[in-house]
């Protein structure tokens, strides 16, 4: 009888892990991150060609960040989830800016609204407004959308929602890709 109960509990636990998407994805990301990297989509040379007007950084082109690890975020001042994740992005930037380039692109925003938002919140993460078309490969469908690109242009993380970017998991992931 005792073995049957243990067996039944084990089957239920395995079933929950296998069939509940949130738990399955968490387990996959936690225990098999290498598989994610091996299957990563690459951002091509043409995808990097985006003229960027600097808001609190010099104007540049995204292709100047090629061959570097890049935290690429698409956001807007009008987007509540975008605003929610900003404090954690600022903390991540403060601790990892020496190893990862941060490029935050304000979308569908007025320059003065972006400047006001940054100033009011004392944010220093480099922010830009795209001055040329964005490749379909990285053009966001929802906001915020964040990509973590390695120096080879592989998309290692794509997050289509607000996230706590100052978590230990994110820090460890970044530490592993910059080695």
From TrEMBL:
The keyword Transmembrane does not apply. One of its GO terms (molecular function) is oxidoreductase activity. Pfam families: Redoxin. Its main location: other. GO terms for cellular component: cell envelope. Keywords: Cytochrome c-type biogenesis, Redox-active center. Residues 41-179 form the Thioredoxin domain. InterPro entries: Redoxin (IPR013740), Thioredoxin-like_sf (IPR036249), Thioredoxin_CS (IPR017937), Thioredoxin_domain (IPR013766), Thioredoxin_ResA/DsbE_sf (IPR050553). It is found in: Cell envelope. The keyword Transport does not apply. GO terms for biological process: cytochrome complex assembly. This is TlpA disulfide reductase family protein. It comes from Chryseobacterium arthrosphaerae.
């Amino acid at each position: 009888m005792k073995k049957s109960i243990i067996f039944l509990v084990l089957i239920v636990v395995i079933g929950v892990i296998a069939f509940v998407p949130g738990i399955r994805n968490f387990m996959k990301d936690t225990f098999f991150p290498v598989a994610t990297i091996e299957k990563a989509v690459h951002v091509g040379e043409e995808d990097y060609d985006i003229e960027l007007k600097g808001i609190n950084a010099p104007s540049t082109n995204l292709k100047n960040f090629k061959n570097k690890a890049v935290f690429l975020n698409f956001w807007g001042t009008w987007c509540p989830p975008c605003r929610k994740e900003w404090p954690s992005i600022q903390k991540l930037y403060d601790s990892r800016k020496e190893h990862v380039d941060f490029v935050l692109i304000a979308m569908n925003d007025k320059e003065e609204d972006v400047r006001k938002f940054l100033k009011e919140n004392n944010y220093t993460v480099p922010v830009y407004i795209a001055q040329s078309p964005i490749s379909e490969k990285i053009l966001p469908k929802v906001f915020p959308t964040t990509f973590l690109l390695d120096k080879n242009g592989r998309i290692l993380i794509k997050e289509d929602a607000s996230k706590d970017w100052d978590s230990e998991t994110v820090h460890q992931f970044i530490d592993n890709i910059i080695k």
